[in-house]
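[audit] Reproducing an earlier prediction to check determinism. Same input, same settings, fresh worker. If the tokens differ from the archived copy the diff job will pick it up downstream; this log only records the rerun itself.
[audit] input (132 residues):
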Amino acid sequence: MSEFCGDLKEVADILGPEVARALRGACGGLEIVIPEKPPASGPLSELPREMLEQLCATFPRDRLYIAKGTCPRPGETRARVHDLARRGMTTQQIARRLGITDRQVRRHLAGRRLSAPHDPRQMSLFDGRKTG
């Protein structure tokens, strides 16, 4: 597992892992909009002043999702989603259990669907020839 993923990885790459860890501690599990100036209240105000100023200067008006924990290895979450779905859990129950959004659960479950069967009459989008 990597320590940071998604938007938090970008924060760590640009401002350093200390800022990313502090942001995860204050705002983990939230989607936030970084203000142009440091706020006086709210979850971001829990950050040390210097870190908060760096964050506001670097990511003004950016919408960031701050993950709660470390990132699972590729495929690990998908396997867990499918396992819980086979056990009869709903999308919302799976999302709560794994700490992800229900949209992510639906995306993982949609990935297991089979694509439409190949039609040999279908033309290729890339070179104008029929496929098959």
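[audit] rerun output stored. Observation attached for the diff report: The chain has a mean pLDDT of 83.
[audit] end
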